[in-house]
Amino acid sequence: MSLPLLLGLPMLLLAVGAYAIAAARRPDGGRQVYGIALFVCIVLLALALGHLLAGRAPTTLTLPLGLPWLGAHFRLDALAAFFLIVVNLGGAVASLFALGYGQHERAPERVLPFFPAFLAGMNLVLLADDAFTFLVAWEFMSLSSWALVMAHHQDPANARAGYLYLVMACFGTLALLLAFGLLAGPDGGYDFATIRAGTTSPGFAALVLMLALLGAGSKAGLVPLHVWLPLAHPAAPSHVSALMSGVMTKVAIYGFIRIVFDLLGEPVVWWWGGVVLALGGITAMLGVLYALMQHDLKRLLAYHTVENIGIIFIGLGLALAFQANQMYASAALALTAALFHVLNHSLFKSLLFLGTGAVLTATGERDMEKLGGLIHPMPWTALAFLIGAAAISALPPLNGFVSEWLTFQAILISPELPQWLLKFLVPAVGALLALSAALAAACFVKAFGITFLGRPRSPAAATARETDRYSLTAMFVLAGLCLLAGILPGLVVDGLAPVVGLLNGSARLIPQHHQPWLTLVPVVDVKSTYNGLLVMLFMALSGFGAAWLIHRLASDKVRHSPAWDCGFPEANPAFQYTAGSFAQPIRRVFGSIVFQARERVTMPPPGDSRPARFKVELHDPVWERGYAPIADAVVALSSRFNYLQYLTIRRYLSLVFGALVVLLLGMVLWR
Amino acid sequence: MHGLAFDIAHFLAGGMVVASFLLLYQDRLSALINVFALHSLVLVLAVGWQAHIQNAHHLYVTAGIALIFKAIIIPTALHRIVRRLGIHRTLEVVSGVGRDMLAGTGLVALAILVMLPVTAKADALAREDLAFALAVVLLGLLLMVIRHNAVSLVIGFMSLENGLVLAAAGARGMPLAVEISIAFSVLIALIVIGVFLFRIRERFDSVDMQAMDTFREGRRR
Question: Are the beta carbons of B213 and A646 separated by less than 8 Å?
Answer without folding.
Answer: no
